[in-house]
Write a structure and sequence with these properties.
Blueprint: E1 9-16, H1 22-25, H2 32-40, E2 54-55, H3 57-61, E3 70-79, E4 85-93, E5 97-98, H4 113-116, E6 121-123, E7 151-153, E8 156-162, H5 171-187, E9 192-197, H6 204-215, E10 225-227, H7 236-247, H8 259-265
Parallel strand pairs: 1-4, 1-8, 2-5, 8-9, 9-10
Antiparallel strand pairs: 3-4, 6-7
Bound molecules: guanosine-5'-triphosphate and magnesium ion.
Length: about 270
């Protein structure tokens, strides 16, 4: 019989959080792309802080975005403390904005983001892995990796909450949208990890609100909270490992370390 550590585990993760036009999102995003970048390509030289969301029509219909509102970030293997190799595949659910009209691009039948991001069966034929912003338009000069079989079945979600203050985004709006997202994710019955982003620039009031949100009766006890910073590379792998162990129904659970402590021992 194969030992537990001999079996490779494949985990498909969907990263979600407040997205959309500037009216909702404010001047910048909550950190979905940076988190995915740090996790998939953790080497410091491969970490970009500037990712796409406002695009030309040509880039929206190019092979990377592929007329979808999600990005395929590719795959990475990470070893758990127990010695299990987890093969992670990642998508980011976002919303692409037309640089001519500053409205969302319209694809076929478009549900609002809070519903759409809870999708568990995703398809997109011939879609290419996203690497960085400069890749768009010159895809051939980069590695061309396809979304395997044009399909992605989500095993678990990482839901983001930005704890930094972003101009033109209200805290109340983020709480309202994230709680709607979480309610829709819970309906899928898939494991969810709730993470706070940008803890290197956290506002204490926002941290308290994030805590209050997961203490609500509908979320209490089902949402582990991991405090992360993609810029500082703190607790990013931990968040995905916690999710993998939930998907895998592992008895062994990696200890969740608060941001301040994790940043110190890094
Ligand atoms: P959309 O896809 O456009 O909705 O945005 P997003 O959620 O993908 O956000 P993205 O990762 O593009 O980051 C938005 C902004 O937040 C960028 O200016 C990043 O530099 C900043 N940011 C992302 N992660 C961190 C972090 O860990 N710390 C700090 N201080 N800033 C961050
Ligand atoms: Mg993004």
């Amino acid at each position: 019989m194969a030992r537990k550590t001999d079996i490779a585990r494949y985990i498909n993760v969907s990263v979600v959080g407040l997205s959309g036009v500037e009216k909702d999102k404010g001047h910048s995003g909550v950190g979905k792309s940076c988190l995915c970048n740090r996790f998939i390509r953790s080497h410091a030289d491969d970490y970009n802080v500037d990712h796409i969301s406002v695009l030309s029509q040509t880039d929206f219909s190019g092979r990377v975005v592929n007329n979808d509102h999600f990005l395929y970030w590719g795959e990475v293997i990470k070893k758990s403390e127990e010695g299990v190799d987890y093969h992670f595949s990642l998508i980011e659910q976002t919303e692409f904005i037309d640089d001519a009209s500053f409205q969302s691009f319209k694809g076929g039948k478009m549900e609002p983001y809070v519903k759409r991001c809870a999708a568990t069966k995703i398809t997109s034929a011939e879609k290419l892995m996203y690497i960085c912003k400069n890749q768009l338009g010159i895809e051939k000069e980069y590695e061309q990796k396809l979304l395997p079989e044009g399909k992605f079945n989500v095993d678990g979600f990482i839901c983001l909450f930005d704890v930094s203050i972003v101009p033109s985004r209200s805290l109340e709006k983020q709480i309202e949208i994230v709680s709607n997202i979480l309610n829709n994710l819970l309906k899928t019955k898939k494991p969810i990890v709730f993470i706070t982003t940008k803890n290197d620039d956290a506002d204490p009031g926002y941290l308290r609100e994030a805590d209050k949100l997961i203490q609500r009766k509908e979320f209490k006890g089902v949402l582990p909270l991991v405090e992360t910073s993609a810029h500082e590379n703190v607790n990013v792998d931990l968040a995905f490992m916690v999710l993998a162990q939930m998907v895998d129904k592992c008895k062994f659970r990696t200890k969740i370390i608060p941001y301040v402590e994790a940043a110190r021992i890094r």
